[in-house]
Amino acid sequence: MKHEILNIKGVCFGEVLWDNLPTGRKLGGAPLNVAYHLNKLGIHTDMLTRVGDDTDGEDIIALCEELAIPLTLFQKDSKYQTSTVEVHIDENKDVRYEIVFPVAWDNIALGEKEIEAVSNADFFVFGSLSTRNNISYQTLQTLIKAANYKVLDVNLRAPHYTKERIFELLYYADLVKMNEEELGFVATWLGLPDMDTDAIKAEAVMTTFGVNELIVTYGAKGAIYHSWLGKFSYHFPALRVEVKDTIGSGDSFLAAFLSQRCRQDKQATPEEMLEFATTLSAFVTQSTGACPSYDASTINRFVWLNSLDNIKY
After folding, report:
1. Which residue ranges does the record assign to the Carbohydrate kinase PfkB domain (predicted)?
2. What's the pLDDT tens digit per position in 111-127?
């Protein structure tokens, strides 16, 4: 990994919050995590969100400034509090979330500044969780129409979604990322038999909603990138690491993938895009929290150590 400043701009939309972990609180929210990693990777990415006019909100703003996440599109809410989430991690390292409703990011406002930022960006990342309240949902609907390249991160957190709204977002999207379980949910909603292969399910999703690119992540089994633009499905295995927690691993995967997919100076191959995405995701998985500190040398050392671990004598 080289430290580069790329001539690409992005906007991420949605939740920012404190994840209350057994080890203490950590900055979180899927779109915020994506924005963090994109900025770390040299891509200027604004985070469009809303925090409460409270101590938790001030702490988020201060930490985002420290982490070099642009604050231009942060909004403050005098009525609703900053979001917090209780995170429970079981013996298998799987994560369960208790997400408070309503909170500040459920009420993201729309203005000319927000529309201009999205229309001038190379890509616009949004998740399904931000549609649970009508105010943020209506803002998102307008911004999607102004976006150039629409990236949907399916993030099913019961009970904060409906089939109808997930379907609407899928119709809008150019690129969709979901995990294996989420692919199963969408396939069931489409009436597909459980016995169908994931390849059949992926094709059905792409055909039904006109999605050109679909990434399905499989945790320790890697990820598959389906592309109708290139007419292929490409599987890339995950790196073997000691898992500390899986919080934000999918978000870092998406950020790393976009950093290669949206490059204007060269056309990355599917292997290059997925290799970089799985590498950063593995690094985050063996770290604590969604936004660990790192730079180019940290990732290079991680890759080197991982290659040594996988040498067979």
Report:
1. 25-294
2. 999 999 999 999 999 99
